Amino acid sequence: MKNKNLHNITSTGFKTPDNYFKTFDEKIASKLNNSNSLSDIKSTGYSVPSDYFETFNEKVLEQLKPKKDTKVVSLLNWKKVAYISGIAASILLAFNIFYNNPEKIDFEALETASIESYLNDEDLSSYDIASYLNDDDLSKDVFIDNKLSEESLEDYLLQNSTIEDLIID
């Protein structure tokens, strides 16, 4: 409903007959004084079915009985969620395996200082270090072919050891 012209309305739209409110009291008083009008009414207009009050309790108890449980259908099916998340995880794993090409690490790329710091920090015994080496690494030829001069050995010991390491008990 459009209310564009509400400011132009001059009348309410409701009308009453002439002299309605002047004769209203008289009309009500005459109806109340006239007792014939109430005695002329034969029925109230309402009727009750037969045996209504005798069967009323049974009907109420029947409605109060517990009804059968209805099946609850979940909107979120966990089997489907697990299935879809498994597919998503496998796709993500395949993507990471095939498209993530890490740089190959070889021993030439490692610095000697980082290897030494690892060995010092891990407190490895000689048996632990030997377990990392295979038979080819421990052959006699490897140790015989490496000829170290006394000067290089002294320099190494002075730079990489402390006095406590050099003292023999």
Describe this structure in words.
With 169 residues, the protein is mostly helical. 54% of the residues lie in helices and 0% in strands. The protein contains 9 helices and no strands. The protein has helices spanning 20-33, 36-39, 52-64, 78-99, 112-121, 126-132, 140-145, 150-160, 163-166. The termini are far apart. Keywords: Membrane, Transmembrane, Transmembrane helix. The chain crosses the membrane at residues 81-99.
Sheet/helix structural class: mainly alpha
Work out the number of β strands. Answer: 0
Let me know the average pLDDT.
Answer: 79
Order of helices and strands: HHHHHHHHH
Main beta-sheet annotation: none
- What fraction of the residues are assigned to beta strands by DSSP? under 5%
Tell me the helix content: 40-55%
Whole-number radius of gyration?
Answer: 53 Å
Pick out the low-confidence regions.
Answer: none
Transmembrane segments: 81-99
Keywords: Membrane, Transmembrane, Transmembrane helix
Q: Care to give the gist of this entry?
A:
This protein is mainly alpha-helical. It has helices at 20-33, 36-39, 52-64, 78-99, 112-121, 126-132, 140-145, 150-160, 163-166.
Describe the secondary structure blueprint for this structure:
Layout: H1 20-33, H2 36-39, H3 52-64, H4 78-99, H5 112-121, H6 126-132, H7 140-145, H8 150-160, H9 163-166
